[in-house]
Amino acid sequence: MTEVLFLCRFGLDVLLTVGAAWLLVRAFSEWSRGAPAADEANAARAPRPQGVAALERLLSWGLALLLIVVASGEMLSWRGALGANGFLAAHAGGFLALAAWRRKSLAGDKQALHELGREVRAQFQTKDAAALLGVGLVVIFAGLVVLAMLGKPVVYDALTYRLSRIGLWLQDGRIAHYATDDARLN
What pLDDT is recorded for position 92? Predict the structure, then answer.
């Protein structure tokens, strides 16, 4: 039962983080379009091949996701609240704050998400080399995910070498140097 609850909490955390990352990307996109220098740069830019805009938005979404996870981990470490509950609370707070800030634009954000999905599907439905390479990368990534899920570790020492340090960080609720007089341990 606890595994099911853990997976539900983790799934909720992932959804909140992905949603917050999308809202952050949309907010930054609107902010950068409103800047005068961005308009001049967009006017001078050469036309881009089809699908590039969708790829740029997907990459920015991934980077925003990484930013949210790393920043919340650092802030939780400062407060001594590192752990699953701390991450869930931080990501929920970030999502709710971004949603409240963008409350007038949420319908447009949802529409832009659907538009991005349509652009990605359209890009993969073409028969050009970029679509075939994209499908190939998705297949390779899916294979690596399955391999990582089903593969058993061979060298446990390499995987558990720093586990005690991570356990101490989780126990203390923060990332800090190990309190020791031996400089080799830090």
Answer: 96
Structure tokens at 109: 């954000």
Residues 6 or more apart in contact with residue 116 via CB below 8 angstroms: 54, 57, 58
Measure Cα distances from 186 to 75, 175, 176, 181 in Å. 22, 12, 10, 10
Tens of pLDDT, residues 47-87: 555 556 777 888 899 999 999 999 999 999 888 888 889 99
User: Cα(138)–Cα(142) distance, rounded to whole angstroms?
Assistant: 6
Nearest to 86 by CA among 98, 74, 97, 96: 74
Q: pLDDT tens digits for 98-125? A: 999 999 999 999 999 999 889 888 888 8
> Which residues have CB under 8 Å from 118's CB, separation 6+?
none
Helix (H, G, I), strand (E, B) or coil at 147: helix
